Amino acid sequence: MDRFALSDATSPRIYDDARLTAALVAAHRGGVAVEPPTEALSLARGYAVQARVFAERHAPLAGYKLAATSPGGRTALGVDAPLVGLVNATEVIHGGAVPSTPRPLYAEAELVLRIGIDLPPARDSGAPALLGSLADAIDAVFAGIELCSSRFADDDVAAGALVADNCLLHALVLGDRLSDRWEARLAACPVRLWQGTASSAEGSTALAYGHPLKALAWLAAWLGEQGRGFRAGDLVATGSATGITPVTQSAPIAARFGDFGGVQAHIGFQDKDEGEAK
């Protein structure tokens, strides 16, 4: 059985984007796992399906998550740039229980940045002025754990299908507020993720596109290509600092960001599309 298989009761193969959208929405609401599309999706189609699924879940946009921010991740997916997921407000957990899921869960420790002001659409992600303006716009930095879970019955999917599935986002847990502004010390902060007595995964915030601000700038330029800019209050999960780690739903998951602070995630029992977690 594949790692992400729910059961033998999966939805039929999807042949068009509308049916794929409906199946993914149903899976978010507790339906059966979705068979991967038989036809490869382009990134453009994947993002179009992602947007439709997001709209049909009827929750406000809370921010964005970045995936494939490491060279190894991009190589494995055959892409040359990070991938973007949309975070809705019900998926942001402030120290409470994370909704449970019948699917396997994976955890990533991530630095989460909050934008404090509206910003115009950006253009050049490498412009020093953009990096400076983004750093100045950050009004909070959080320790975060992203919990990932596929809605597909088979995890061996191409990048377009991964994007359609919102880059596997299940929940974004926010822990300690590490700073009220961007600090250079956060650019290469050591990070450790663990669950119970299991071996910990270790890494650095620098694994997020080489530097969390560079990851943020890439996203700003990606949004700018669509005529969009960050809005005050937007959260950005900048990419995994510890890789992707299998976790169970039987014990808390914790991460520590150097001497700055940490975060802990507990698995709960209420569906996130039905209300706040207990």
Automatic annotation (TrEMBL):
Name by which UniProt lists this protein: Fumarylacetoacetase-like C-terminal domain-containing protein
InterPro entries xrefs: Fumarylacetoacetase-like_C, Fumarylacetoacetase_C_sf, Hydratase-Decarb/MhpD_sf
UniProt GO molecular function: 2-oxopent-4-enoate hydratase activity
Pfam family of the protein (one): FAA_hydrolase
Alphabetic keyword roster: Lyase
UniProt keyword Lyase, yes or no: yes
One Gene Ontology cellular component annotation held by this UniProt entry: cytoplasm
Residue ranges crossing the lipid bilayer per the database entry: none
Gene3D superfamilies tied to this protein: Fumarylacetoacetase-like, C-terminal domain
